């Protein structure tokens, strides 16, 4: 198991009316922030349904591209099933792998035997705090004709992900508990404004 890279994360959501106080508190506890606008395409294996039928969980691939940086490359990544709540009750800890794709990520995924399942656009902010990133965004729908994002309705829920900025190994130098404690600190200073919790994805 130690050969795996992991992500440690907490999740939350809130209504638009609470945006300002939440934005202010996260900004206060972060080193930097910038706007984000990403396109994310989800792929599953051609035989995903068969895998589910026989009781195994197919490996889902996600291709992600930052739209606000014209030069940004597609990043292809995949999460495995989160570790059990018994092992990590306070935060979501899941093995993940990632690779930078030069050129067309969509053809690359197809060549691996994957089909496109869905796509979403996310628009909001990214904050850096030590080894963590805090993503705060609204999902945008896709116009079926143009395949372009449609700006989110003002009442669209905001989503928050607090997670390790890069994949980490569970070693003596960098035990997972350090990252769990880091996300729990964010949970603590957001208390009363935003409920951050573990979730099984």
TrEMBL record:
Write down the species: Hypsizygus marmoreus
Gene Ontology biological process: regulation of transcription by RNA polymerase II; termination of RNA polymerase II transcription
Q: Which GO terms describe its cellular component?
A: core mediator complex; mediator complex
Q: Which family does it belong to?
A: Belongs to the Mediator complex subunit 18 family.
Q: What is this protein for, i.e. what is its function?
A: Component of the Mediator complex, a coactivator involved in the regulated transcription of nearly all RNA polymerase II-dependent genes. Mediator functions as a bridge to convey information from gene-specific regulatory proteins to the basal RNA polymerase II transcription machinery. Mediator is recruited to promoters by direct interactions with regulatory proteins and serves as a scaffold for the assembly of a functional preinitiation complex with RNA polymerase II and the general transcription factors.
The alphabetical list of record keywords is: Activator, Nucleus, Transcription, Transcription regulation
User: What gene, per UniProt, encodes this protein?
Assistant: MED18
> Per UniProt, what is one GO molecular function of this protein?
transcription coregulator activity
Q: What compartments host this protein?
A: Nucleus
Q: How does it assemble?
A: Component of the Mediator complex.
Record-given protein name: Mediator of RNA polymerase II transcription subunit 18
């Amino acid at each position: 198991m130690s050969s795996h890279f992991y992500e440690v994360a907490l999740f939350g959501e809130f209504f638009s009316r609470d945006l300002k106080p939440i934005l202010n508190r996260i900004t206060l506890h972060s080193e930097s922030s910038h706007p984000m606008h990403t396109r994310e395409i989800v792929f599953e294996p051609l035989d995903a349904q068969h895998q589910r039928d026989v009781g195994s969980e197919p490996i889902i691939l996600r291709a992600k591209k930052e739209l606000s940086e014209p030069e940004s490359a597609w990043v292809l990544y995949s999460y495995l099933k989160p570790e059990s709540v018994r092992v990590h009750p306070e935060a979501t800890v899941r093995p993940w792998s990632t690779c930078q794709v030069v050129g067309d990520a969509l053809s690359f995924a197809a060549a691996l035997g994957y089909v496109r399942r869905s796509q979403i656009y996310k628009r909001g902010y990214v904050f850096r705090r030590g080894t963590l990133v805090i993503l705060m965004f609204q999902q945008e729908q896709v116009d079926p004709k143009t395949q372009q994002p449609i700006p989110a309705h003002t009442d669209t829920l905001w989503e928050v992900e607090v997670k390790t900025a890069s994949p980490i190994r569970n070693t003596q130098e960098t035990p997972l508990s350090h990252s769990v404690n880091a996300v729990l600190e964010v949970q603590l200073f957001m208390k009363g404004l935003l409920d951050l919790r573990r979730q099984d994805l």
